[in-house]
Amino acid sequence: MPILEGSIGVEDLVLLEPLEEESLLKNLQLRYENKEIYTYIGNVVISVNPYQQLPIYGPEFIAKYQDYTFYELKPHIYALANVAYQSLRDRDRDQCILITGESGAGKTEASKLVMSYVAAVCGKGEQVNSVKEQLLQSNPVLEAFGNAKTIRNNNSSRFGKYMDIEFDFKGSPLGGVITNYLLEKSRVVKQLKGERNFHIFYQLLAGADEQLLKALKLKRDTSAYTYLNQEVSRVGGMNDASNFQDVQRAMIVIGFSEEEIRQVLEVTALVLKLGNVELTDEFQANGIPASGIRDGKGVQEIGEMVGLNSEEVERALCSRTMETGKEKVVTVLNVIQAQYARDALAKNIYSRLFNWIVNRINESIKVGTGEKKKVMGVLDIYGFEILEDNSFEQFVINYCNEKLQQVFIELTLKEEQEEYKREGIPWTKVDYFDNGIICNLIEHNQRGILAMLDEECLRPGVVSDSTFLAKLNQLFSNHSHYESKVTQNAQRLYDHSMGLSCFRICHYAGKVMYNVTSFIDKNNDLLFRDLSQAMWKAQHPLLRSLFPEGNPKQVSLKRPPTAGSQFKNSVAILMKNLYSKNPNYIRCIKPNEHQQQGRFSPELVAVQARYLGLLENVRVRRAGYAHRQGYKSFLERYRLLSRSTWPHWNGGDREGVEKLLGELSISSEELAFGKTKIFIRSPKTLFYLEEQRRLRIQQLATLIQKIYRGWRCRTHYQLMRKSQILISAWFRGNKQKKYYGRMKASALLIQAFVRGWKARKNYRKYFRSGAALTLANFIYKSIAQKFLLGLKNNLPSTDVLDNTWPAAPYKCFNSANQELHQLFHQWKCKKFRDQLSPKQVQVLREKLCASELFKGKKASYPQSVPIPFRGDYIGLQSNPKLQKLKGRQEEPILVAEMVKKVNRGNGKTSARILLLTKGHVILTDTKKTQAKTIIGLDNVSGVSVTSLQDGLFGLHLNEMSPVGSKGDFLLVSDHVVELLTKMYQAVLDATQRQLSVTVTEGFSVRFKESSVAIKVIQGPGHGEKSKLICKKKGSNCLEVTVQ
């Protein structure tokens, strides 16, 4: 049951009933599906990764959580950050925020949110803003060099990080210190399927410009490098090129110089190039296997980049110098050993480079030793891990989580005990699982697993992983939290899942089986001295500083500390640091394996809940009293449950709470009254109070509604009564006003009639009754006469084209003026037509017909308008030879001109004489005097002509006519507008039908039994004289170009 109205599920798992794993998971799933990703366990925040951006962050929410206490608003990471910051600023208590969870659970994002909240709420100022910017910009740099894509997470942190942010007495940040733990340097040389190397390698190759790549002797293609997984080079939603620019800007903000940035990128490129050094088998003269470099180009480039002799690099990779107190022995390495040495060098270079970057950031953000400061630590470290194959890395990670669980239990119980003591409530011992026995099993100085591992690494003689496992089996054969194949056989237990090279530890979060293979090598983490000395001899300042042990003057035969002992010491320092601060916890959970939003896998979350010990956390919090609250806020919330405290209580807060709970008859065993708080033992009691409060609120709401409805009805009735009285008064007054108005109007009307009658009577005595009408008619006629006489004297010219006309002097003459204008124009036109001769009339009719046929359609039409139609263009009347062409046709010749006939078969043209009479079209050869083709106008079905400035037209004939059976004619005329206009009129006169004249750029003409498509296009020329070029396109197409 939720405590806050409108909340989804139980916001604080301390109040969960029943307290079981199933109910816990259902509550988390219910809240997650409603996009409530945060849940409390007391002051612990559980964060379920939503895999999407939710609208619950930003300045608005930061301001909201800054103004409220922890439980007043919905669970949020801002609430925890606010409590930690205010406790540090106001109570002078150092804080630490522990963020745990497995890869992909959102630990890195949670740490960013905490830092962004603290940066937003702390002080302002130029220096403060500079410090905040440096602290925030450390994230992209560490993510680039320490994060990578894994199967579970696209941006997985492959190192543990603890950052101490230091503040002054006002709560403004001064700087900080970053500590890193256990970088996964094995990823440099090998990645699992579907995973990538560290981000910086891909960012460098994608984001560096060509000049930088050339200086680093790199290629942009990731497939050119052995250390980069060829299957996965890009990550969805991640822009490597853009991120590289962000990393460079962040390094500048932090304080890296351009020279330092260049050296860091050179060392990064060196690691890539080391992976491309290919080793090959060789044999010495005595037959001992050795190794060598297959292609010396890569080693030479490495030597040139870091200022080192390539022969010295090859010697360091392929041989090893063993030193004792008095002598040196040089041994050659076979291919496998040389490859191990190469990979070990690459891992050490990258690991030391990462440590150098962390130290360099610390130099920029460190605080002076003389300043008094407060500290807030943020721990972002790997969560508990159980993989299919668990090795040395999982062993030390789970050891670290055991220690963090120990800190949580001890500090939580300590905080509970201190609160009980402050409030004067007796403390009862709490039964809980103490994982100290597991921590002791791992870290005991003489008999712990890490101590046995170090002892086995230092022991002379044959050392292997199997001898290490045998020593563990002998030492922990009776330990309740240790199992192996040997111990199970001794107890006559059979477990087929247990391997011969494995052992199992019963952690607080469950049993984990570890494979001891490579435990010895990973713990030794050896780098041959020859390689350290070779790197120290390099002329590269940064690379040289990473290998101080390579200095011959500082050669030490003392064995370096093992990886396990180093990590154990780091964890011990971390635990000491955490014990000195007030802890705050963020438990991150991954809802599914596929990074899909809205998907919740109960099985996966159940495993993580056990890893994180959530149920154990709840049980510890509920060991004494599940809920506690200040008297004032408790009384404010529940005082409505008692008649004594509701609606007013004038006594003290504690007395009011005692009076309230006494009237509710709650068992005294369920309650404890502290100095400032009321303590409630079980959640059921709190739920009972909430249920009673809900019912009481319903009763009060009903009472309020009843009183409000009564008041509203009374108010409405009184308002209606007042309105009715007011309306009645206004109605009666208005009625009387209207009656008075009618009486007054009637009196005035009678008076007006009487006065008018008297005036008319007196008028008739002195004046004629029709004088006014006579005067008006006379004046109107005088004005009209003056208008018409003025119009007569000012008539415009009789030119037909002159359309001017004087305006009317008065508006009353406008319509008459327009009619006169129209009559005058019609008279001028008739007079003009009467003056024309019949020949001129015929010419104008032909021009009118040409306008109707070609105006706006044919480009050559405007040129033909001013030119009169001649008809005879070949001198027919004066040439008797040409008159013979008429033959027996006695009709007058309408048009006689020279045309060109286009051959429909090949596009060639030939000259012809065309005669148009009133009944025929005659075509003949220019060299002959007899007609070649005579076409009756009744056989002409239509004409097709183009819209361009040419004379091409197609003469379409009826198929049934003797001439038309051969096909249509395609002709070119220089006077096509005149010819087709007269042909149109001749056909109309002869057959009483209109000739079809089609203007188009594409038409077809019949040719024997088939048809030829004519396509006319405009060429580049635009002169007045158009030239036609005919080309045959295929068998049935003729293209005509007009130039």
TrEMBL record:
Domain TH1: from-to ranges: 858-1042
Keyword Phosphoprotein among UniProt keywords: yes
Domain Myosin motor: 8-694
Any one Gene Ontology cellular component term annotated for this protein: brush border
Keywords associated with the record: Actin-binding, ATP-binding, Calmodulin-binding, Motor protein, Myosin, Nucleotide-binding, Phosphoprotein, Repeat
Binding site for ATP: G101, E102, S103, G104, A105, G106, K107, T108
PROSITE patterns per the UniProt record, alphabetical: IQ, MYOSIN_MOTOR, TH1
InterPro entries: IQ_motif_EF-hand-BS (IPR000048), Kinesin_motor_dom_sf (IPR036961), Myosin_head_motor_dom-like (IPR001609), Myosin_TH1 (IPR010926), MYSc_Myo1 (IPR036072), P-loop_NTPase (IPR027417)
GO MF terms, alphabetically ordered: actin filament binding; ATP binding; calmodulin binding; microfilament motor activity
Top-rank taxon, per record: Eukaryota
One Pfam short name: IQ
Biological processes per GO annotation: actin filament organization; actin filament-based movement; endocytosis; microvillus assembly; sensory perception of sound; vesicle localization
UniProt similarity note: Belongs to the TRAFAC class myosin-kinesin ATPase superfamily. Myosin family.
Described purpose of this protein according to its UniProt entry: Involved in directing the movement of organelles along actin filaments.
Name by which UniProt lists this protein: Unconventional myosin-Ia
The encoding gene: MYO1A
